[in-house]
Amino acid sequence: MWPLLAVVLAHTLIIGLWVAPSTAFRDAVGYDRVREYVHPWFQQGWSLFAPTPKRGDMVFEARAFVVDSETGEGEPTE
């Protein structure tokens, strides 16, 4: 169990260094070392969330039926 815990903690530390802003500790470890670990396995792009994002305009049209509160009669809008 201890080796697995050590691997999980090391992984978490490296990912934390990758997403954190630049600090003295991150600079001491080295950007290239962190990048070598993270980039091949965890490269992120829009394809991670939406394989083919839709590009284009969408139109939404609506009509309302307005009712007069005094007479109870109504008419649709254009």
Brief sketch in words of this structure:
By secondary structure, this protein is mainly alpha-helical. It contains 3 helices and 2 strands, in the order H-H-H-E-E. It has one domain.
Structure description:
The protein has helices at 2-19, 24-29, 31-42, and strands spanning 65-67, 74-76. With 78 residues, the protein is mainly alpha-helical. The chain has one domain. The protein has a two-stranded antiparallel ribbon with strand order 1-2. Helix 1 (2-19) packs across helix 3. The N and C termini lie far apart (69 Å).
Helical content (DSSP H or I, runs of 4+): 40-55%
Give the termini distance in whole angstroms: 69 Å
Estimate nothing, just give the exact number of structural domains. 1
Query: What is the C-alpha radius of gyration, as a whole number of Å?
Result: 28 Å
Listing every helix as H and every strand as E from the N terminus to the C terminus, the arrangement reads HHHEE
Task: Compute the average pLDDT.
Answer: 81
DSSP summary, beta strand count: 2
Which features characterize this protein?
78 residues, mainly alpha, two-stranded antiparallel ribbon, 46% helix, 8% strand, elongated
Would you spell out the secondary-structure blueprint of this structure?
Elements: H1 2-19, H2 24-29, H3 31-42, E1 65-67, E2 74-76
Antiparallel strand pairs: 1-2
Helix pairs in contact: 1-3
